[in-house]
């Protein structure tokens, strides 16, 4: 079992920044290579925002490239999502995911115009 807890969401004006955090716990054998950030806007499907893809590589959704950065602290089992130049269309609930089974409860990000 893996527990994931997101934090750092909130209300921000367009052009602003937020840093989301995801704290993982519960499994001794754990790799942040299996972690990712997703988001779900009202009325839309959940979509991948950023993920680690092994060997230090990262993938980003085209809509966030150049604005968002995923990072991690392996020792602390933490993954972060630095979001800059935020746009109203970034408004969504942001979820942390581990592997294919485990999701956090989500944190709301609202970007006002």
What does this 3D model show about the protein?
The chain is mainly beta and about 110 residues long. The protein has strands at about 5, 10-15, 20-25, 35-40, 45-50, 60, 70-75, 80-85, 90-100, 100-105, 105-110. The strands form two sheets. Strands 2, 4, 5, 6, 9, 10 and 11 form a seven-stranded mixed β-sheet that branches. The chain has a four-stranded antiparallel β-sheet with strand order 1-3-8-7, with no helix packed on it. A hairpin with a 4-residue loop joins strand 7 and strand 8. The protein is globular and about 45 Å long.
What structural class results from the helix and strand content? mainly beta
Q: Please bin the fraction of helical residues.
A: under 10%
Number of strands: 11
Mean pLDDT across the residues is 94
Task: Choose one word for the global shape.
Answer: globular
Main beta sheet strand tally, sense and closure: 7 strands, mixed
C-alpha Rg, in Å? Answer: 13 Å
Low-confidence segments, given as residue ranges, are none
Please work out how many helical segments DSSP would assign. Answer: 0
**What is the beta-strand fraction?**
over 45%
Helix-strand pattern, N to C? EEEEEEEEEEE
What secondary-structure arrangement, pairings included, does this model have?
Layout: E1 3-7, E2 10-13, E3 18-25, E4 35-40, E5 47-52, E6 58-60, E7 68-73, E8 78-83, E9 92-98, E10 102-103, E11 107-112
Parallel strand pairs: 2-11
Antiparallel strand pairs: 1-3, 3-8, 4-5, 4-9, 5-6, 7-8, 9-10, 9-11
